[in-house]
């Protein structure tokens, strides 16, 4: 899991053309945990589970997550994020066979379908693929822990044109709220309306 995360760039800067680009927090080797907790004071199972769901020593930047989802959207090819208009730099981040990639796209699109964690953020006539996330912040308000609410997604799922990452810091709600914001941005870009807006107007 650690080596896989490193290979996917989870501990590397995004490369965006901003001086404030920061390196995400992600262990660079298994020995990291021995150094931090002591060789007998941690278990691989709990550490790997935490990393897999984006918790523990995994703290990503918004730009890095958008970069990673651009690779999910375009067959493992990742684009270097830029603000200044220039020729896109694209490199291969990972290799998946066509079957696995199709199943991944289907699973991510299911997040905004009925029963998904972001079903209320679906876009009329367009499949929105993505994932909600609710990360613990360690900060409390009135005895309740606040969250970092995430959603990263792309659309259309079968022919991606846009990737959007939204992270709301220290909030008392979950990633489904971030999905509403991402959905509105994507719908505006595609010049259509989110289902929630269409239903409200009707």
Task: Summarize the structure in words.
With 202 residues, this protein is α+β, with helices and mostly antiparallel strands. It has 2 domains: 1-95, Beta-lactamase (3-Layer(aba) Sandwich); 98-202, DD-peptidase/beta-lactamase superfamily (Beta-lactamase). It is 35% helix and 20% strand. Strands 3-4-5 form a 3-stranded antiparallel beta sheet. It has a two-stranded antiparallel sheet with strand order 1-2. A hairpin with a 6-residue loop joins β4 (144-155) and β5. The model is unreliable at 197-202 (pLDDT under 50).
Please state the oligomeric state of the protein chains shown: single chain
Percent helix: 25-40%
CATH topology description of the largest domain: Beta-lactamase
Low-confidence stretches: 197-202
The major β-sheet equals: 3 strands, antiparallel
Number of helices: 7
Rg on CA atoms, Å? 18 Å
Please tell me the overall pLDDT: 87
SSE order: HHHHEEHEEEHH
How many domains? The number is: 2
Secondary-structure class? alpha+beta
How far apart the termini lie comes to 48 Å
The CATH architecture term of the largest domain is: 3-Layer(aba) Sandwich
Report strand %: 15-25%
Q: CATH top level of the largest domain?
A: Alpha Beta
The count of strands amounts to 5
Q: Largest sheet, order of strands side by side?
A: 3-4-5
CATH superfamily of the largest domain, called what?
A: DD-peptidase/beta-lactamase superfamily
Large-scale geometry: globular
């Amino acid at each position: 899991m650690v080596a896989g995360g490193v290979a996917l760039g989870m501990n590397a800067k995004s490369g965006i053309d901003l001086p404030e680009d920061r390196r995400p927090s992600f262990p660079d080797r298994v020995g990291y945990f021995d150094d931090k907790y002591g060789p007998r004071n941690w278990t691989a199972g709990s550490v790997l589970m935490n990393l897999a769901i984006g918790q523990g020593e995994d703290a990503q930047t918004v730009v890095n997550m958008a970069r990673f989802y651009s690779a999910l959207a375009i067959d493992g090819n990742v684009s270097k994020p830029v603000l200044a208009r220039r020729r896109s730099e694209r490199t291969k981040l990972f290799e998946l066979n066509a079957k696995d990639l199709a199943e991944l796209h289907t699973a991510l699109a299911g997040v905004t379908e009925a029963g998904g964690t972001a079903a209320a953020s679906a876009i009329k006539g367009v499949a929105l693929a993505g994932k909600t996330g609710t990360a613990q912040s360690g900060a409390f308000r009135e005895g309740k822990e606040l969250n970092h609410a995430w959603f990263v997604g792309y659309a259309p799922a079968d022919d991606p044109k846009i990737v959007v990452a939204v992270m709301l810091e220290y909030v008392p709600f979950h990633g489904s709220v971030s999905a509403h914001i991402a959905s509105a941005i994507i719908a505006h870009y595609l010049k259509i309306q989110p289902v929630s807006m269409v239903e409200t107007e009707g």
